[in-house]
Amino acid sequence: MRILMIVTSHDKMGDTGHKTGIWLEELAAPYFRFRDAGADITLASPKGGQPPLDPNSQVPDALTEATKRFEGDEEAQKAFANTVTLDGLKADDYDALFYPGGHGPLWDLATDVKSIALIEAFVAQDKPVAAVCHGPAAFVNAKTKDGKPLVAGKKVTGFTNDEEKAVGLEKVVPLLIEDEFTKQGGLYERADMWASHAVVDGKLVTGQNPASSDAAADEVIKLLGK
Questions:
Q1: Catalytic residue among 133, 163, 178, 219
Q2: Which residues are in coiled coils (predicted)?
Q3: How many Cα atoms occupy the beta-carbon half-sphere of 63 within 13 Å?
């Protein structure tokens, strides 16, 4: 079982002067779900090397057993410090694709042509493609082989408009996932704010928020029959 996890390289929250990046729980929880299930994991990012972590995801209230394990795990830390670039990555070499969130993907992965090409290749090969929280921003410009938006007619979720308003960033972010998916014909689903909620439609898996990280990863493992 080989899983490609693509994370953001973007570290600026618009022009607010605040930092952003990956939300640690959304990387750590799926990473260990996959690794504990026997997966060989590749961590990649648009710029390669050490990607940025959202500092807010490292405050005490945001820490979980998975984040603590990630911070103390030598193998995980080495992989995180040395993410590969997207150059030369092929869907042929992996069984599933997963995008952690954090606000960063709204700025880089939403429009990254190499990432979009990888998503479309995984979909064309009928392999699981998954994302959690803001990770689904990576899907907004992806198309199916017949040229339709990837999410059109599909049940999907992602960070809700209400959750974005609750963190005070609805006017800062370049796109709202709920609005984008709805505009593209996605059948957007949501649970209560901050509740775990993962949605599966065929081989497409989406999770609503940080609390959905484990659930989204578990759905990928199920699709892989592990």
A1: 133
A2: none
A3: 9
The pair of three-digit structure tokens given for residue 209, joined into one six-digit string = 């928020």
Residue 164 a catalytic site member:
yes
DSSP, res 61: G
Q: Which residues have a Cβ under 8 Å from the Cβ of 108 and sit 6 or more positions away?
A: 8, 9, 10, 46
The pLDDT tens digits for 7-45 are: 999 999 999 999 999 999 999 999 999 999 999 999 999
**Single-letter amino acid code for the residue at 195:** A
Query: Is 26 annotated in the active site?
Result: no
pLDDT for 176 = 98
3-state class of 84 per DSSP? strand
Instruction: Please indicate whether residue 18 is annotated as part of the active site.
Output: no
* pTM to 2 decimal places: 0.98
Helix (H, G, I), strand (E, B) or coil at 89: coil
C-alpha span between 51 and 105 (Å, rounded):
12
Q: Active site residue: 164, 178, 180, 219, which one?
A: 164
CA distances from 205 to 122, 154, 166 (A): 13, 10, 24
Tokens of 23: 């939300």
